[in-house]
Design a protein that fits this description.
heterodimer; A: about 160 residues; mainly alpha; about 80% helix; B: about 250 residues; 2 domains
Amino acid sequence: MVAQGVTPVAIGSCQRQCERRQLCTSVTFKKSKLFALATTRAHTYTGPMIQGLVQLFIFQALGELVSKFALPFIPGPVLGLVLLLAYLSVRGHVPAAIDLVGGSVLQHLGLLFIPASVGVVLYLPVLQANAWAITAALVVSVVATVAVTAGLLKVLAKKNPTDA
Amino acid sequence: MNKEFQTQLPPISDIWVYLSGSPLLALVLTLSAYLLGLTLYERSQRNPLANPVLIAVVVVTFSISVLDMPYAKYFEGAQFVHFLLGTATVSLAIPIYKGFASLKGRMSVLLLSLVAGGITSVFTAVGMARWLGVDESLVRGLVAKSVTAPIAMGIAERVQASPTLTAIFAVSTGILGAILGRYVLDALRVTQWWQRGFALGVAAHGIGTSRAFSVHPEAGAYASLGMGLHGIVGAVVIPYAVAWWF
């Protein structure tokens, strides 16, 4: 019963049913603190995690479907993002379950890049032959991108002091 | 024949064959390398040079070459981690949604800077690479490198670039941006956290965002916003730009 994650409401109704039918012999246990603790734990910890994961997967799958059948020029995950954004705007807040799971996935975003980047081993010969040029291009590009984005933000924000 | 085969193998290689056949080895390798990277990053007082992803990639690459494990074999196991990139992309809706609330009319300013930054990113990378005579097969991989890796890989497929190569360039850009961003922003005397974060998110996507979050929460929120918006805009615009330019 604990493993099923019964909510406090469900315990109450279960107790009433049990008492009415006089079938339940362990009412004292069910009223005990231990039982309440175990069931609330099951509710607060396992519930939202699975809920959040399922909801995110549903939006991911919807995105893939829309990408496959309607908008093939936009990657599925991006459409999933847009759909989730629309859902959040309709709801008016971020549901706790999605916030919990999405937040923890994003917190360790770096981890998720590792498998793809280890693919560097496949391209070592061609990369080594162009190593300096590629490094130079990447460094110049990233420095220029940070500089242009931040520089423009700074200038534009100064022009509109109300934004500060 | 099967029996003969078994008697030839000592028990230790039996275990080895079993382990390398299951996804566990690749998963344990990936996660422990990341954990090691995180530990070293914390130990070094979050020095940008001790980037946890860079450390992890070096450790995993070194380990699989020592173990003589082909990349395809490694990826078979590590794909479970890789799969979550799509979920992470969808989750980007959360910081974007939360970011909208605190924008207070900054949206037009942010979008303008984003577009300028995105154009700068593509043109400087492709321009520099061609000018320095980089192999044309590699140049295409540079097009989407400032977009967050899962979206970049999707764009790569659409512009006939190698998704793996694009992912490598995207991650390298992220690591470089996370390391160098701070010095560029200091040199330009950009002091507002939201401006610093947004620029990092646009230029260095996920890894820059991780870095921004570890420095300041406001910078992190705006970095996620920058990364997410760049992802959406990039996914729509970059394939057309490439079709027109190449």
